[in-house]
Amino acid sequence: MRFSLLFLAFLGLSSTLQAQSPAPFGAVPSARQLQWHKLKYYAFVHFNMNTFTNEEWGHGTETPDMFNPTQLDCRQWARVAKAAGMEGIIITAKHHDGFCLWPSKYTEHSVKNSKWHNGKGDVLKDLSAACKEYGLKFGVYLSPWDRNHPAYGTPEYNDVFKNTLKEVLTQYGDVYEVWFDGANGEGPNGKKQVYDWPGFVATVRQYQPNAVIFSDAGPDIRWVGNEDGYAGETNWSTLNRDKVYPAYPNYWELTLGHEDGTHWVPTEVNCSIRPGWYYHASEDNKVKSLEHLVDIYYSSLGRNGNWLLNLPVDRRGLVHENDEKRLMELKAYTDKASHNLAGGKTVTSNSVFSKASTYAASNVLDGNRDTYWAAAKEAKQATLDIDLGKSTTLNRLLIEEYIALGQRVKKFSVSAWQNGQYQAIATGTTIGNRRILRFPTVTTSKLRISIDEAKASPLIGNIEVYNAPELIVTPVIKRSKEGLVTIACPRTTDPVITYTTDGTEPTAKSPRFSQPFALPSGGTVKARAFVDNMKRASSPATADFDISSAKWTVVSTGGQSPGKNADRLLDGNSDTFWQQRKSTEAPTSVVVDLGETLPVHGLTYLPRQDGKKEGIVYRYAVSVSQDGKNWSAPVSQGAFSNINNNPVNQTIRFDKPASARYLKFDILETTVATDATVSIAELGVLTR
Ligand code: FUL
After folding, report:
1. What is the domain-level CATH number for residue 296?
2. Are residues 383 and 494 in the same domain?
3. Which of 97, 261, 356, 439 is the most exposed place for a label (fewest CB within 10 A)?
4. How far apart are CA 501 and CA 250, in angstroms?
5. What is the pLDDT of residue 214?
């Protein structure tokens, strides 16, 4: 009797307690996801066989001896990552060519058969130790696609892959993230593999239960749908996970997530600091500018994602000096841009859950992510007023939901107290784990954050405000078909642009750009924008040009005389493109008359830059001719690796230069084989 009375009292108490704390809404994160959400920014390292073969996708036919770094130093990687403010490193332990960076028992394509350290080397051992030493997390990328393994394409391969995983997950200490590449191509026997995803996931859970698993479809974290570094401004951490699978065709849905999705599967934004994922010496001058990286910073970790920034380690086995320099500039910038001006200030709200102090507005400024402000039960709108105590200049706001109980906010806005009233300065849609809004600099003493629409009563864990230095946009260098170079600095008032054409860094004293200049035979143009009486400068922009297309004409496309849009593939304008139906029988050929005989060392192909994939060329062949009638055997043929996900300018270098007046570019296959069309933004020629 006494027991049941006690029990009833307990029940009564717990339901009152429940009524006094906000209930979860929709899909919520797991404990391992919550751990991962505490991170922001960490390194991807693409370093493997491709580093030595200059490829993006290796063929699996390499000899293990080709892997031979001369000064491999994983401690250098860790030192650079740590100094850059990164929290971990994810290494390409095994890419599509199948080469394993550790001595695997399950393949011959591995460091164990290379001359490097007489087959006794182990990159995973070195890197995991370096990460430990520098206090970084250690993660692994593994591609199930394997172009080398003899069993690939048979059920036996799934066991091989699971055994491989077990080696990686049991020999190197804690692994915080396992990154599964969804690519699924043919193996050495021409067959594709039917992957045992449930088995792969179970293997990770068995050996590293705390690791989060990444793939296009999670289960723990999802791809963001592009390799450019941009999450959606609206970005739900929820996903209808059972509808999505690796290589999901409607990949663009991954950028926004699914509102009301059944599972919590947040985004990780992966992009490279250079155009390619692997190191190519030709990209040493193409490290993304500080301005570009800052934009990605706000568009990835500032839009409810974590940022995975790739560093292509070079053939020495080191992070290249140019990449390191840029990373340190980024760190210096973000340090300056995230000094919190709201910490410890006062904040009030028009709505508090149960009017309880546990959920008071002050929780958003206390620097503690585990305490939060909750609006009244059922409230879908509420405001938070921050009193900054004095006139404060600011241009960024960071806001975080208390996501342990789900993602709720659909729309919010920020206003600043000016001339006796609140005036709107910025709006946003979703918040999620972390949202940073950028807006023009204002000076104010009070801010109002309004949650304008929420799916359930809003819960906010943290708010910070900053005054970030405004960066000067890097100039954009373009050359017209006629060979005239123009340099512009968009969104900048009255910049002075200086430039060089001898490869040196432009300074305030270099020639000023005032009108287009001719550069028909090509060269390197570097430019910089200056403002404030030449006191502040952008980082330099570099453009490498070969011979211009002034004398070129398109002779035919797909066997027909070319329509007027064919000019677009030679117009020097990367924003326009030519597109045409595929020929009924492959290939669809594009024939170009160079107007003179040139020593042709290779060709460049820029795929359409509008984000769409239709018609992007995958397999190609190139032939040359002196008269446009008699064609050589192909001087080059191959495939553009990873062009679908990363549509950057592609370079084909011929084995030996060909003297040519006419060029024929045969499009043998597009990235989506069922596409009805082919498309080209620009074709170019390498004459050196
Ligand atoms: C893609 C791969 O095909 C690329 O080579 C690269 O590894 C990128 C991160 O993922 O799916």
Report:
1. 3.20.20.80
2. no
3. 356
4. 44
5. 98
Secondary structure in 3-state letters for 380-447: CCEEEEEEEEEEEEEEEEEEEECHHHCCCEEEEEEEEEECCEEEEEEEECCCCCCEEEEEEEEEEEEE
Residue with tokens 């990687």: 77
Measured from the Cα of 270, ligand 1's closest atom is 9
Last residue of a domain, one of 335, 365, 399: 335
Q: Which two tokens stand for residue 445?
A: 């003493």
CA of 91 from ligand 1 middle (Å) equals 12
Residues 559, 540 share a domain: no
Choose the final residue of a domain: 335, 366, 392: 335
- 380 lies in a domain? yes
The answer on 120 and 237 residing in a single domain is yes
454 and 307 within one domain: no
Long-range contacts, stretch 422-426, CB < 8 angstroms, 24+ apart: 422/446, 422/448, 426/397
Asked whether residue 199 is domain-assigned, the answer is: yes
Query: Residue 647 half-sphere exposure, CB side, CA atoms within 13 Å?
Result: 23
Calpha distance 254→267 (Å, rounded): 8
**Alpha-carbon span 423 to 442, nearest angstrom:** 11
109 and 223, same domain (yes or no): yes
The whole-number pLDDT of residue 15 equals 47
pLDDT given at position 587: 94
Nearest CA to ligand 1 atom 6: 277
Residues having CB closer than 6 A to ligand 1 are: 56-57, 181, 183, 270, 277, 642, 645
Tokens at 65, concatenated: 């001896």
Whether residue 23 is contained in a domain is answered as no
Domain of residue 664, CATH code: 2.60.120.260
Measure 95 CA to ligand 1 centroid, in angstroms. 8
CB proximity list for 549: less than 8 A, separation 6 or greater? 481, 570, 571, 572, 684
The domain containing residue 400 runs over which residues?
346-466
Which residue from 640, 642, 644 has its CB within 8 A of the most atoms of ligand 1, so it is best to mutate? Answer: 642
Q: Please tell me whether residues 231 and 375 are part of one structural domain.
A: no
Q: In angstroms, rounded to a whole number, what is the distance separating the alpha carbons of residues 265 and 33?
A: 9
**Looking at the structure, do residues 292 and 432 belong to the same domain, yes or no?**
no
* pLDDT number for residue 1: 44
Atom nearest to 642 CA in ligand 1: 3
**pLDDT value for 4:** 54
Residues 6 or more apart from 450 whose CB is under 8 A from it? Answer: 381, 382, 383, 412, 413, 414, 415
Residue ranges, the chain, pLDDT below 50: 1, 3, 8, 10-15, 17
User: Does residue 383 share a domain with residue 308?
Assistant: no
